[in-house]
Design a protein that fits this description.
- The chain has 208 residues and is an alpha+beta fold.
- The chain has a domain at 42-163: Sandwich (Immunoglobulin-like).
- The chain has four helices and twelve strands; from the N terminus they run αααββββββββαββββ.
- The protein has helices spanning 2-19, 22-26, 42-45, 140-146; strands spanning 52-60, 67-75, 80-86, 94-95, 101-106, 112-118, 126-131, 134-139, 148-152, 157-163, 169-172, 188-191.
- The strands form three sheets. A five-stranded antiparallel β-sheet has the order 3-6-1-10-9, with helices on one face. It has a five-stranded antiparallel β-sheet with strand order 4-5-2-7-8.
- A hairpin with a 5-residue loop joins strand 4 (94-95) and strand 5.
- The longest helix is centred in the first third of the chain and has 18 residues, at 2-19.
- The protein starts with a helix and ends in a 17-residue tail after the last strand.
Length: 208
């Protein structure tokens, strides 16, 4: 009982310390709304190796049952570094020997995603894809300007194209948040985790 009273008193005191009087509440600092800045220049999209990372997402618009798809990557030529397929809940694709043709089936519920790495990219570099016999073509510059592009085949199969970013660490300026400069004693860093979190084997605290 004494411990409970102590915690309740401590909690009340802490709230007064944090929020102060009613007059102090009016002067409380309010963080500005956050908006993710999209790249505006072509070099901002490139990864640390100077490559352009392209994301292709394919799914049907109406059919829930998986439909057969043939995706061909005809351009770029020698600039194409690699293509990796991520079937998610779909069956893996059958990949041709040249690693430019992919046969698979996909429905509306779960997309089939491809990641494409392009070496020595230029704004005018052309990407040519063939989706079930229908050509889909665009330049990297157009994709950066539009941020995403959509193509639809006659069978109601949609191809969604956008770019991938790998800038994982950003530096936070304390002054923008009303915090005094750290004077080289410490700094803030905002780190993204594109790998999906810590693996169970890396957990410091075992799950309940």
């Amino acid at each position: 009982m004494k411990r409970r009273k102590f915690i309740s008193r401590l909690g009340a005191g802490s709230s007064l310390f944090l929020f102060g009087s009613a007059g102090e509440k009016k002067r409380a600092f309010i963080l500005p709304p956050f908006s993710y800045r999209q790249p505006t220049d072509f070099p901002e999209v490139l990864n640390q190796q100077g490559q352009f990372q392209l994301r292709l997402e394919i799914r049907t618009l109406t059919e829930v049952a998986p439909q057969p798809v043939l995706l061909e990557v005809t351009a770029p030529g020698s600039q194409l570094n690699r293509v990796i397929a991520y079937p998610f809940a779909n069956k893996p694709a059958t990949i041709a020997a040249d690693k430019r043709k992919f046969r698979f089936s996909v429905g509306k519920a779960y997309p089939f995603v491809f990641a494409v790495w392009i070496d020595r990219p230029k704004p005018g570099t052309r990407v040519r894809l063939v989706l079930n016999g229908e050509p889909c073509e665009f330049s990297l510059e157009t994709l950066v300007q539009e941020q995403q592009l959509f193509f639809v085949a006659d069978e109601g199969i949609q191809l969604h194209c956008n770019y991938l970013l790998d800038k994982e660490i950003g530096v936070l300026e304390p002054a923008r948040l009303g915090i005094a400069p750290p004077q080289r004693q410490f700094s803030f860093a905002v780190v993204a985790d594109p790998q999906g979190g810590i693996r169970p084997s890396q957990r410091l605290i075992p799950p309940e």
